[in-house]
Amino acid sequence: MRIEIVEGDITARPVDAIVNAANSSLLGGGGVDGAIHRVAGPRLLEACRELRATVLPDGLPVGAAVGTPGFNLQARWVIHTVGPNRHAGQTDPALLASCFSESLRVADSLGARSLAFPAVSAGVYGWDAREVASVAFDAVRGYGAAAPDSGVETVEFVLFSAETAQIFRAVLG
């Protein structure tokens, strides 16, 4: 599994699937979540409402992931995951790692070969970008080792700011 760091807009990435740093309601929000919903169009919100009405009546739990079509995005799929909110006392790195490994599991189930992640839980959820990068890279490498038959070949970390991209590059080495 190849890991790449990209500075830019995750909604414009030519990958099979992008990961949405969603809130548990799945009904849109700010930041990456809002940008993905805007570009994907109203059918994404409809798909998320359908998930809430059927398999996720209580919302998506922290650390879990679920897929929907990408609709108007370049990516064929959106994989929604809910990162832990440090401000709400969710400080366990295992919850954060689960966001990455569960997203990879969903990507595999969808047949995705390329996947783009944002800096899940960095920013408004209060996690330090350096810690997010370290946990994310460990989770991706761990998933690759545990699932040698994974079809995911490329994992991009798409960071909106130059500063965050620089931090991720430094942690990746």
UniProtKB/TrEMBL annotation:
Coiled-coil ranges from the UniProt annotation: none
Domain Macro span(s) in chain numbering: 1-173
N-terminal signal peptide: none
Cross-referenced Pfam families: Macro (PF01661)
InterPro entries listed in its UniProt record: Macro_dom (IPR002589), Macro_dom-like (IPR043472)
SMART domains: A1pp
Name of the protein in question: O-acetyl-ADP-ribose deacetylase
Species assigned in the record: Arthrobacter cavernae
